[in-house]
Every structure is written in C-alpha cells, then in structure tokens.
Amino acid sequence: MAAPYLSMWRLIACVDALLSRRIVVEEKVPLRAFTAEVIGEALDQLPPSSPSVRRVRTALHAAYDQVWSPNETLTRLIALRHGFPPPRTNYHVAPRGRHFYIDLAWPESMTAIEYNGEVHYKNRSQYENENYRLQLIREAGWDVQVLVWRDLWDPEQRRSWLDFLARKLGPPTRKV
C-alpha cells in the first residue's frame, strides 16, 4: 500500500480519483463501482490499527466524488484549510445551452476557481477552447479565477487567489 509514502493531500487526491472515475472492481457477484462504502468495507477487512488503514480512512473522510485532477484536490484543500466554505466540485453549468463543468464552484455567489494544467498550455486547440468556455461562463455571471501550478505553491500568488475568495465569499472562518 502506498499510503505511508504519500503526503496526505496526495492520498486524498488518490481517493478522489477512485471515487470520481467510478472504477469498477470485480467481486464475486455483481460488479460494483468504487464508492466510499466499498472502500470502507475493504478497509474493514484490514487491521484497524494499521497506520496505512488509518491514513486511508482519514483521506476517505476528506475525499469528494466529483474531482477530476489532483490539482483540483490540492486547490480545494488549500481553500478549505484557509477557512472557506466547501466548494461544489466539477459543478455543471450550461451558458448558451453549452454544457461545462467548473472545477470549484460556490454557486450562491457565482464564484469559481478553475485550475489549468499542462494540457492548457501545450495544446493550442485546448487553450483556445478553454478561453471560449471561460468567456461563456463569465458572460453567464460567474466570477472566475484561473489558477496554474505556481498559484498553488508560490505564497504571494496563493495569497492573491485566496484574497479573491475572501472578497467574493466573505472572510474565511479561520486564519492559517
């Protein structure tokens, strides 16, 4: 098990991926998707005092089932750690009848965080499609902040998007 070797955020990202992709595991009868219950039942078969089991249970309690990239997980965890309300992940919107998903959304305030990874700068077509998608989402009234990797690890840049959330959502419930 990789649990002892992964940071907690990476372990949570792994559980997010299991829950989000609905990976099917073969059991005696019938096939079932990975859900929190299935993972919990599997953990019940292992020694409860195992450090790996405890870490995976902790990750399972923090995991979401609609997260499609590890950096979405990290962005969500940073926002939560700074005291912001839980976001909706991969939240469906349909501006102009087009169907899109917002990485992290707070629908009540129409506030969104989009994480743009490597594919957005390495693939011109993907970059162009993403800009059009963001334009439509913004025209529908959403205030969207787009993040890249440096926004997560550079303290000044991280402070910038956390300040954006504070302006849009109100002050966080706790300071880190």
Question: Could you characterize the architecture of this molecule?
Answer:
With 176 residues, the chain is of the alpha+beta class. It is built from 8 helices and 6 strands. The strands form 2 sheets. Strands 3-4-5-6 form a 4-stranded mixed beta sheet, sandwiched between helices. Strands 1-2 form a two-stranded antiparallel sheet. A hairpin with a 6-residue loop joins strand 1 and strand 2 (32-33). Helix 1 packs across helix 3 (51-62) and helix 1 packs across helix 4. The longest helix has 16 residues, at 124-139. It is globular and about 50 Å long. The protein starts with 7 loop residues before the first helix and ends in a 7-residue tail after the last helix. The model has no long low-confidence stretch (mean pLDDT 89).
List the helices and strands and how they pair.
Layout: H1 8-21, E1 24-25, E2 32-33, H2 36-44, H3 51-62, H4 70-81, E3 88-93, E4 100-106, E5 111-115, H5 118-122, H6 124-139, E6 143-147, H7 149-153, H8 155-169
Helix pairs in contact: 1-3, 1-4, 2-3
Terminal CA distance reads 31 Å
- Outline the low-pLDDT stretches: none
Order of helices and strands: HEEHHHEEEHHEHH
Strand content: 15-25%
Strand order, main sheet: write it out: 3-4-5-6
Number of strands: 6
Main beta sheet: 4 strands, mixed
Helix content: 40-55%
Number of helices: 8
Which secondary-structure class do the elements indicate?
Answer: alpha+beta
Mean pLDDT: 89
General form: globular
Q: What is the gyration radius calculated from CA atoms? A: 18 Å
